């Protein structure tokens, strides 16, 4: 069983998947930073607030020590039911950014594959040059045929 497990892990597709997950996690952090640190402050400024995550509606009772608080994280940690549409919008923007980047990546790969297939078809259509030794043997044969028989 251990040998089978080692063979399973050593297969290329499992290693490729592991690499993809690790790169995906790192890419997710980059997109999160882009969204939270670059885009959402600009969007929040346009809509009148600097912190977009502070857009929420309180749906339940707020503890006395947090009364009047606009700290979404603190209220959520205290167990207050919140309708956090600002956090949802942030996640939606994250998704759109990731989807767009993946779309551009797939689009580029598809164009490269199409270009590669065109090049491959172009080279397949061209007849390959005859090797020099075959051409020489063919000339000798033709010369021998053309000689008068004795």
From TrEMBL:
InterPro entries: Mechanosensitive_channel_CS, MS_channel, MSC/AndL, MscL_channel. It comes from the Bacteria. The chain crosses the membrane at residues 12-31, 38-62, 82-106. Its main location: membrane. It is a multi-pass membrane protein. PROSITE patterns: MSCL. GO terms for molecular function: mechanosensitive monoatomic ion channel activity. It is found in: Cell inner membrane; Cell membrane. HAMAP family: MscL (MF_00115). Channel that opens in response to stretch forces in the membrane lipid bilayer. May participate in the regulation of osmotic pressure changes within the cell. Homopentamer. This is Large-conductance mechanosensitive channel. The gene is mscL.
């Amino acid at each position: 069983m251990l040998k089978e497990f080692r063979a399973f892990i050593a297969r290329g597709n499992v290693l490729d998947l592991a690499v993809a997950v690790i790169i995906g996690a790192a890419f997710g952090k980059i997109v999160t930073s882009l969204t939270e640190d670059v885009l959402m402050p600009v969007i929040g400024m346009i809509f009148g607030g600097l912190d977009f995550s502070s857009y929420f509606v309180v749906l339940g009772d707020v503890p006395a020590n947090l009364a009047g608080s606009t700290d979404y994280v603190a209220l959520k940690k205290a167990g207050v039911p919140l309708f956090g549409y600002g956090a949802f919008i942030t996640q939606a923007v994250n998704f759109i950014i990731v989807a767009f980047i993946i779309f551009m990546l797939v689009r580029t790969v598809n164009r490269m594959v199409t270009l590669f297939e065109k090049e491959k078809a172009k080279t397949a259509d061209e007849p390959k040059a005859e090797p020099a030794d075959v051409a020489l043997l063919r000339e000798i044969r033709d010369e021998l045929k053309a000689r008068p028989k004795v």
